[in-house]
Amino acid sequence: MSETAPQTPAGPGPEAALDRDQFDTLKVLGFLYLRLGLAPKAARLFQALAALAPQDVQAALSLAAATLEDGRPEEALALLEKPPLAGAAAGAPARLLKARTLWRLGRREETYKLMDQHLAAGDQA
Length: 125
Prior knowledge:
With 125 residues, the protein is mainly alpha-helical. The protein has helices at residues 20-35, 39-52, 57-69, 73-80, 91-104, 108-121. The relative contact order is 0.10.
């Protein structure tokens, strides 16, 4: 039996929730959209997934990445600075994406500082 993602506020019934397999399949579709250069579509999909499961780090990180690729670095940075991506809990992927976002915003000194912190942390996950 597969895990169930949180039910949406859309209403009761089985159509209001996705099981874990469906949720993960939609994440893969979002990654495909990104690889195909369809960042706006990917961002919309990841926004829906992040709304369904607000504590899912991968969905939140994917939303931030798609938002950055869609040319909205300020919004991507805002997503990276709030839960579940804020702080050390999100790990190396969030730090690296934040560094990329800061670089796109022209905030070089902050990027260098963050990369130094990343290298000092020693995790490559």
